[in-house]
Amino acid sequence: MVTSLVAGVVAALLYGIATVMQAVAVREASTREVGDGSGVDPGLLVRMLSQWRFVASICLDALGFVAQLVALQRLPLFAVQAMVAANLAVTAVLASVLIGVVLSWREWLAVIGVVAGVGLLGSSAGAEGATQAGAMFKLALIVAVAGLALLGLVAARLRDPARTLLLGTVAGLGYGVLGIAARVLNGFAPLTLLRDPAAYAVVAAGIVSFVFYATALEGGSVTVATAAIVLAETLPPAVIGVIFLGDKTRPGLQPAAAVGFLLAVASAVMLARFGEADRAVAPSAQGTPSAQPSAPMPASPMPPAPRATAERDTDDVPAPCSPPDGKSALRGAE
């Protein structure tokens, strides 16, 4: 159980760092106008693959996914998905320490809330449910991914604000399917994976989720997209885990688990602007750099990719002079 808890925290850390790097990569690779509703850009991923930050972030995401798999071996889905959503707290803290972002007292409280919520979940979560998923359940996951892909293509043609909200929701549901599929894998031997429909659901869900999250952040509000992702990737899997997979808490600790889950998810939503941690240092009137608070980043996890030429929300600060060197450098991203 301790190993799984550590693995869940490690997954959040890795997803959080990867998110920031992907946010920078999306901004540099995008050629789209803000919220133009022109659909999915097929060349976006190709252009991002030419950037070292994006390639490195994919490696971090892969390591984070391995850690997530380890966590899922012992912990219920509701605990692991909430831990994955905690990568936004990692992103916020790293933005504060490495980029000089000024966090408000509410955001520091949200960081504390995420930590406290994950702590409550870790102490109250029982072992993963013993219920085995059948072939029909796994095939249903593949069908769900196909449905999300179609819905995402339709959402990408809309205009904001509906476009960003729906794309974030689609991406979040996809990440949720990824977590569920990873949970019901029969094993990790190559031949076993080739015969397991859940393995194909994992791959398809990961691709679909990342593409639509990147599309949402390309020209929409980071805060809206990331908040939608956090809710969609945590709530449905938690319900499915309890109803269909037998996930439970430790005897008598159901209230603590419920409070921990809600606290972690609500606090992560409060940190949604860090779905794209593009908080650089802007020049002051005297010409010396001074840290600027980042406006609710036009909104993770995941593994969350960011937008490239998107306008900032009305309360955002001016665009930074230069991007940070390093998402989730600050799901995710589970």
Structure report:
This protein is mainly α and 334 residues long. The chain is 62% helix and 2% strand. The protein has a two-stranded antiparallel ribbon.
Task: Label the structural class.
Answer: mainly alpha
Radius of gyration in whole Å, from Cα?
19 Å
Our count of helices gives 12
Ends apart, CA distance between termini: 19 Å
Report the major sheet.
2 strands, antiparallel
Overall pLDDT: 77
Kindly estimate the percentage of residues that lie in beta strands according to DSSP: under 5%
* Form type: globular
**DSSP summary, beta strand count:** 2
Helix content: 55-70%
Biggest sheet: strand arrangement:
1-2
Strand/helix succession: HHHHHHHHHHHHEE
Low-confidence region ranges: 278-334
User: How many distinct folded domains?
Assistant: 1
Features:
334 residues, mainly alpha, two-stranded antiparallel ribbon, disordered C terminus
Question: What is this structure, in a nutshell?
Answer:
The protein has 334 residues and is mainly alpha-helical.
